[in-house]
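Try this one yourself first.
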């Protein structure tokens, strides 16, 4: 009987499904062997690269060529549901055969109703079996068009999935709307306002800072810092700035304290080293003068010098102080307007910057700064970490209470996310399409079937039940119209 032949084929299919796990494990072992040997069996290997490249290519798709314990559990569930669905098909087939036999044996009209329901149930079960099977493989091994959809259309599905993600998840409106609904600014502020969280962020920032400073080579940074300082100093004329600064200092009388200090130190030195001054005067006298005359002149010079310094120290209105003020004022003006003075200052600046001692000093700045920063970052009680922690707590409190600041933070984050999404959308979607394209078709099909196959078997069961009810209804209506 033709239907009996179909039943036998379906029964053989169930037995074949029951051995899927063994076949899959064998395929995985074969593929792993091929990948390890660098043969053409490795996914994406092509037998072209060395053994290491083949292993790297196979490792990229390991998740789609192996089955985890959870996957195996799901596959067992799929096999159980296949047996139930196939068993229900066999049941309605047996019912149909018995109903037909009873009808021919004169059992009554009821046998026709049962036979019609069972026959429609078989049709529905077979149709849904074909539809479900066509998703994953060719039914009965026959290469019928538009079957084995997932393995044959895998790459197209990957492209479609990438386009779907790009259009519906990576669009500017979706990203902005999602981030705006989350309210990151307020949540981040509330999170930072907690002292424990501020401590954690401070520690992470300190670790990152130490790591960055450790990675940087001192010689490279020193060269960059020295070049930057030298280039900036060479590019900018310093004489006008010095002139304005000196003019402001003289106008405000800020130089007077410096003059007081110099005069005080000069007076103290003269008091202490009077003999040295007199010796210097005597040493500069002509050789033909009598020595007592030299001592007389030296003593006189020393006393006049001491008197002059003392009066200048004690008298704010001393004429010498006024002369010094006029000199500084004129010098400040020359620094700003006199071409020759400005040129001399620039030459002096270039000479100073060109000295090796100055360059070494500039280069050593980085070493001192780095050591200071590393030490501060390592010390939990350092001023740097305490200030960073206090700033984070203050920022968190402001962000959690200030809606305007929250809006600014949300706007910055939205703009940054939109920039990343719109700029790298192609790279993100290509990650999906390339990953799907690299999957092995057979194992991808088996994994998808393991995850959704159990629910698909309910389609077969529902098709059997619904087909039986529909057949019974059609047969009943036909008999009523025929009557």
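Now uncover the answer:
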């Amino acid at each position: 009987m033709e239907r009996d032949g179909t039943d036998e084929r379906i029964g053989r299919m169930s037995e074949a499904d029951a051995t899927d796990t063994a076949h899959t494990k064998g395929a995985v072992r074969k593929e792993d062997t091929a990948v390890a040997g660098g043969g053409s069996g490795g996914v994406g290997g092509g037998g072209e690269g060395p053994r290491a490249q083949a292993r790297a290519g196979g490792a990229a798709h390991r998740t789609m060529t192996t089955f985890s314990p959870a996957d195996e559990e799901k596959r067992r569930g799929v096999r159980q549901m296949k047996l139930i669905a196939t068993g229900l098909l066999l049941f309605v087939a047996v019912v149909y055969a018995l109903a037909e036999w009873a009808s021919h044996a004169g059992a009554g009209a009821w046998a026709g109703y049962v036979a019609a329901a069972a026959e429609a149930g078989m049709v529905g079960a077979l149709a849904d079996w074909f539809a479900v099977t066509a998703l994953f493989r060719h039914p009965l091994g026959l290469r019928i068009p538009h079957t084995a959809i997932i393995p044959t259309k895998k790459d197209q599905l990957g492209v479609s999935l990438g386009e779907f993600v790009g259009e519906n998840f990576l669009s500017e409106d979706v990203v902005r709307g999602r981030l705006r609904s989350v309210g990151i600014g307020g949540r981040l502020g509330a999170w930072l306002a907690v002292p424990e969280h501020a401590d954690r962020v401070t520690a992470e920032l300190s670790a990152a800072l130490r790591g960055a400073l450790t990675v940087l080579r001192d010689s490279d940074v020193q060269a960059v810092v020295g070049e930057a300082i030298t280039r900036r100093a060479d590019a900018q004329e310093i004489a006008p700035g010095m002139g304005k600064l000196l003019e402001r200092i003289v106008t405000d009388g800020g130089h007077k304290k410096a003059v007081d200090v110099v005069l005080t130190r000069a007076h103290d030195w003269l008091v202490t080293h009077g003999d040295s001054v007199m010796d210097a005067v005597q040493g500069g006298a002509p050789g033909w003068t009598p020595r007592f005359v030299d001592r007389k002149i030296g003593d006189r010079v020393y006393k006049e010098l001491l008197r002059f310094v003392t009066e200048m120290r004690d008298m704010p209105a001393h004429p010498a102080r006024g002369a010094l003020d006029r000199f500084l004022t004129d010098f400040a003006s020359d620094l700003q307007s006199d071409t020759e003075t400005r040129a001399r200052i620039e030459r002096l600046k270039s000479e100073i910057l060109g000295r090796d001692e100055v360059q070494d000093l500039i280069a050593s700045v980085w070493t001192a700064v780095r050591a200071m920063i590393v030490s501060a970052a390592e010390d939990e009680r350092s001023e740097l970490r305490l200030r960073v922690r206090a700033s984070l707590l203050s920022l968190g409190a402001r962000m959690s209470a200030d809606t305007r600041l929250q809006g600014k933070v949300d706007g910055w984050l939205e703009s940054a996310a939109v920039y990343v999404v719109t700029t790298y959308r192609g790279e993100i979607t290509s990650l999906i399409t390339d990953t799907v394209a690299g999957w092995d078709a057979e194992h991808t099909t088996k994994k998808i079937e393991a995850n959704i196959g159990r629910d698909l078997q309910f389609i077969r069961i529902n098709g059997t039940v619904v087909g039986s009810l529909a057949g019974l209804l059609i047969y009943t209506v036909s008999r009523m119209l025929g009557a």
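Discussion: The two ends are 31 Å apart (CA to CA). The first helix runs from residue 2 to 18.
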